[in-house]
Design goal:
The chain is built from 20 helices and two strands. It has a domain at 274-491. With 491 residues, the chain is mostly helical. Helix 2 (28-51) runs antiparallel to helix 3 (75-98) and helix 17 packs antiparallel against helix 18. The model has no long low-confidence stretch (mean pLDDT 89). It has a two-stranded antiparallel ribbon. Keywords: Cell membrane, Membrane, Oxidoreductase, Transmembrane, Transmembrane helix. Residues 66-109 form the NADH-Ubiquinone oxidoreductase (complex I) chain 5 N-terminal domain. It is found in: Cell membrane; Membrane. The chain crosses the membrane at residues 6-25, 32-51, 71-96, 108-126, 132-150, 162-182, 205-230, 242-262, 274-293, 314-336, 372-394, 415-438, 458-476.
């Protein structure tokens, strides 16, 4: 297949989104049908492209002698691109119903669709310069989604989001410049492509630059102390928060760190150094902090936001072991977390959409009136806790295995931190379920009996994600086999 085909699924959503901005479709039904056809078609194109991969990179243009912009599909691209493509059509369906009574829906859906293409650009980037370009574009196209409601809280959250992202990309830029100057070839190569001979006398500087890059890209992955934008962004409509927390933005941060660690600097140069200890400790602090704050938070979506902060650092913790098993564990949790967290956020959105209730203490008795929504939340909660027979257990088992393989004190401490986080996750997820199904004394059914589950556009994705969570829990081997081939370079 010609390599230029890689560009098609990136451009198609972007062009359609721009056309929607220029030529708005006022009829909601026609607009939704048009967008869903484009999104589904694009997903089919992506999946076809992943099963018929071009053997060569596609060269777009160059920013300089050593700065070509290229697209390429390797194993990691297949994983992230496939994950995004499979989740986006369901997210769009949910957004149609959720945004039905909102203002400026045409603009919202336009940027929502553009974000699909830009995220695929991050996935299919052939080198770190190209990835950085799409990574920056991702910030720009998600800004209108965060500020969509135009409330005071939304404007404040958008400013905070922008400040954090600009700061993060500035730190990441340092690592990109250094790598571009001292790499053998700027293209992504599993095992890294840094010229170790050229920097042998300046290894501490190289390690410092890697740490800068880790924290720079880690801003999108909500690493402590650069996590504040994520809970604040919960003021955005739920399709956006699900997009930010489960699919596009935060996963792009984790994906970029995987590229930086395994495909640029290389684990041979990083393993056993002080830089590895720093990033391991940062991930552990974030896991502990996010889990603890999740228990304290009473706002429904913000509680899930702190859960996201914690779970993203599960991925970073696995990556920081800097071993093939660590990459397998990180990728498995990346996929599993995307499914169970988008389900949890969609449950929260369904409650808010149907009842206009935003806080946990307002959920008493809703489980009886919205059984599908709260059963889906129960399943995602058990999976987030790492209960056996659910998808979260599979990925957390792999993470623990990678940590124990590390055979160091920090590896054993990390296992204890994961146990603590699992306990906190059980508390902050099950308290929601308990309030919904076992209301407090004095609860009156007539206060909630008017509420119902949403229609199939919102309920359908919840059922699908719940089924996937259970199926992966019972039968994860095909997913793990695919990830293992990525980690050893077969794909």
């Amino acid at each position: 297949m010609p390599s230029y085909f890689i560009l098609v699924p990136i451009l198609l959503p972007v062009i359609v989104g721009i056309l929607l901005l220029i030529f708005p479709i006022e009829d909601a039904k026609k607009r939704n049908i048009c967008i869903e056809i484009v999104v589904v078609l694009n997903t089919i194109l992506v999946l076809w492209l992943l099963t018929h991969r071009p053997t060569e990179s596609f060269y777009m243009f160059s920013l300089g002698a050593r700065l070509p912009l290229t697209l390429n599909i390797d194993g990691l691209s297949m994983f992230f691109g496939g994950l995004v493509a499979c989740l986006w059509p369901l997210a769009s369906l949910y957004a149609f119903e959720y945004m039905k009574h909102e203002e400026r829906v045409n603009t919202f859906m336009a940027f929502y669709t553009i974000t699909y293409g830009v995220t695929l650009g991050v996935a299919f980037a052939g080198n770190i310069i190209t990835m950085y370009l799409f990574y920056e574009c991702l910030t720009m196209v998600t800004l209108p989604l965060v500020i969509h409601t135009m409330t005071r809280e939304a404007r404040k959250a958008t400013r905070q989001y922008l400040y954090y992202m600009i700061g993060g990309t500035a730190f990441a830029f340092i690592a990109i410049v250094f790598y571009s100057l001292f790499c053998n070839d700027i293209a992504f190569v599993l095992g890294g492509n840094l010229n170790l001979a050229a920097i042998s006398n300046h290894m501490d500087i190289a390690l410092l630059v890697y740490v800068f890059g880790f924290f720079g890209f880690g801003v999108k992955a909500a690493i402590f102390p650069f996590h504040g934008w994520l809970p604040a962004a919960s003021v955005a409509p739920t399709p956006v928060t699900a997009l930010l927390h489960a699919v596009a933005v935060v996963k792009s941060g984790a994906f970029a760190i995987m590229r930086l660690t395994y495909y640029c600097f290389g684990t041979e140069a990083l393993h056993g150094t002080w830089a590895q200890v720093v990033v391991l400790i940062a991930a552990l602090i974030t896991i502990t902090y996010g889990s603890t704050l999740g228990v304290r938070e009473t706002h429904f979506k913000r509680r899930l936001a702190y859960s996201t902060i914690s779970n993203l650092s599960y991925i970073l913790l696995a990556v920081a072991t800097m071993s093939p098993l660590g990459l397998i564990a990180g990728l498995s949790h990346m996929a599993v977390h995307a499914i169970m967290k988008i389900s949890a956020f969609f449950c929260a959105g369904a409650v808010m959409h149907q009842t206009e209730k935003n806080y946990i203490y307002e959920l008493d008795g809703l489980g009886f009136e919205m059984p599908v929504t709260f059963m889906a939340l129960f399943i995602s909660g058990l999976s987030l806790m790492g209960m056996p027979l659910f998808a979260g257990f599979v990925s957390k088992w792999n993470i623990v295995h990678a940590l124990l393989e590390h055979e160091s004190m920090i590896g054993y401490i990390s296992v204890l931190v994961l146990l603590y986080s699992g306990l906190m996750t059980g508390i902050y997820m099950l308290t929601i379920i308990v309030r919904a199904w076992f209301p407090h004394v004095g609860y009156h059914k007539d206060l909630v009996e008017e509420f119902r589950d949403p229609n199939w556009l919102m309920k359908g994705p919840l059922v699908i994600f719940s089924v996937l969570t259970v199926v992966i829990g019972f039968y994860a081997q095909p997913l793990l086999d695919f990830i293992q081939k990525i980690a050893v370079g077969i794909y």
